[in-house]
Amino acid sequence: MSQSIIKTQQLRFSYAADEGSVPPVVLDGVDLEIAEGSFVAVLGHNGSGKSTLAKHMNAILLPTGGKVYVSGIDTADEDALLDIRRTVGMVFQNPDNQIVANVVEEDVAFAPENLGVPSEEIRRRVDEALRQVGMYEYREHAPHLLSGGQKQRVAIAGVIAMRPRCIVLDEPTAMLDPIGRSEVMKTIRALNRTSGVTVVLITHHMDEAAMADRLVVMAKGKIVSDGPPRQVFRQVEALKSVGLTVPETTELLWQLRQAGVDVPLDALSDEECAQALYRLLQ
Amino acid sequence: MALKDITLGQYFPGNTLLHRLDPRTKLLGTVAYIVALFLAKGIVGYAVLLAVLAALIAVSRVGLKTILRGMKPILVIIIITAVLNLFYTPGAGEPLAAFWIFKIYPEGIWAAVYMILRIAMLIACTFLLTYTTSPILLTDGLEKLLGPLKAIRVPVHELAMMMSIALRFIPTLIEETDKIMSAQKARGADFDTGSLMQKARALVPLLVPLFISAFRRADELAVAMECRCYHGGEGRTRLRVLRFRGADVAALAGSAALCVLVGVLRQFGL
């Protein structure tokens, strides 16, 4: 197994509470290791702690218990803050609230500027990052005139211009229309496949989670399931019990099984599902 | 007035001579122009300044229409100042017209015309600055020009950053205001009729959600900036390095010459 880029050990987190009341526990002992170069989806219902977990991955939040390591560095180490943030980039839900500049390329340049990269090198990185997300033609546009999906791709470019080894995306498609969603998902997948960037995708969309190599399911601040998507989605009852649904293909096959029809549960794509049904009908 | 008409602080990308000038040149040039505008006294001075402005607008390719549209929101201020000047400028000769306590002298008419021109040209030249300079370059220029103030502990970088973020969020917040307004109208809110008091009161349900969302945005933006390694102005480099070129030297010399020319014309009462 390759080296892990993010590692949490018995990570616990609770927000400061008023005196007398018990602080609500958001993360309750999370042990997670993310291998370099992998594509991990973290799935969970609202309030499962998945976003809080994401914010621990580049020291926006610090654990109230346990440890988080980013490529071996403890995130509680304040002197290493810039190193941690440069290693793990973060993309958020609302693209409007993470774009700093009025011109696309100047926004993408923001992170390398902060890191003190020389001007010619910034230019190279900005062009490269914009090409990677397919927004190079828009480099001189004003971000507020772009569509949601385009804005989110600019935000992703703004993070990859930092050359991080890992990108954490916290529900990047939650505010986008279906076209924007598919644009962003394609970009994320290409980043992982062709550039080898580790991707951690926080989501509650089953079909997005199904694209990952590994799926971590969270509920009430704990990891309840962890494995390849095929394997995780087979645990239909377990997922339903924590308030999650399964992809429509799995749901269909599961319903058929409930009715006593013999079909495999791990056909995840539409194609595979159709094949399984075809074999059944033969 | 539709909200999208507000063009304050907007930037129109382009590649004209005016766009390519160093932002510091444009800032200093604008200041010089405003100084000249306040030095101008007679018709010749104003004519010179108007000609310069017209030439700059033509070079910028921003279009006169865009500039005039941007002035709409301040039309009221222009009219009020003009009217005040019209009635309150005392004249030496016979009043042209008089009723009740108001007397209009020829000097008043001139003062009103000059005041309209002065305000309109002042606004137009500052618009020209923001229309042809990307906000980031503008704040960069400002940061550089004010750089010496760092010595007396003025947080120049922070101020410049705040300004650029404020400019960046103007369109976003305008869009949001439009959305909230529509939502309130759909539920029967009335922003357009009633007395001034009633209109002001109708704005409260608009401003409260707008402020709440602005604070939330600010919070998220701060986190996103930290995630991208923002840690103040120290050790920051820039995508575009500001550099004075020949055109900048010429433009600065031109601005200085304009001030001198208008100053001299003033001496002759022109």
Characterization of the model:
Chain A: InterPro entries: AAA+_ATPase (IPR003593), ABC_transporter-like_ATP-bd (IPR003439), ABC_transporter-like_CS (IPR017871), ABC_transpr_CbiO/EcfA_su (IPR015856), Co_trans_ATP-bd (IPR005876), ECF_ABC_transporter_ATP-bd (IPR050095), EcfA_1 (IPR030947), P-loop_NTPase (IPR027417). Chain A: It comes from Lawsonibacter hominis. Chain A: One of its GO terms (molecular function) is ATP binding. Chain A: Keywords: ATP-binding, Cell membrane, Membrane, Nucleotide-binding, Translocase, Transport. Chain A: Part of an ABC transporter complex. Responsible for energy coupling to the transport system. Chain B: Transmembrane (T) component of an energy-coupling factor (ECF) ABC-transporter complex. Unlike classic ABC transporters this ECF transporter provides the energy necessary to transport a number of different substrates. The complex is a heterodimer of chains A (282) and B (270). Chain A is α/β, with parallel strands linked by helices and 282 residues long. Chain A has a single domain, classed as P-loop containing nucleotide triphosphate hydrolases (Rossmann fold, 3-Layer(aba) Sandwich). Chain A has 12 helices and 10 strands. Chain A has helices at 50-56, 81-87, 104-108, 110-114, 119-132, 148-160, 178-195, 206-209, 229-233, 236-241, 248-258, 270-281; strands spanning 4-14, 25-35, 39-44, 65-70, 73-74, 88-91, 166-170, 198-203, 214-219, 222-227. In chain A, strands 6-7-8-3-9-10 form a 6-stranded mixed sheet, sandwiched between helices. In chain A, strands 2-1-4-5 form a 4-stranded antiparallel sheet, with helices on one face. The longest helix of chain A has 18 residues, at 178-195. Chain B is an all-alpha fold and 270 residues long. Chain B has one domain. Chain B has a two-stranded antiparallel sheet. The longest helix of chain B has 32 residues, at 196-227. The radius of gyration of chain B is 23 Å and the shape is flat. The two termini of chain B are 39 Å apart. The A-B interface holds A 58, 60, 82, 85-86, 89-90, 92, 94, 96-103, 105-106, 109-119, 122-123, 126, 140-142, 144, 158-159, 162 and B 11, 13, 134-136, 164-165, 167-168, 171-172, 175, 216-217, 220-221, 223-231, 235-241.
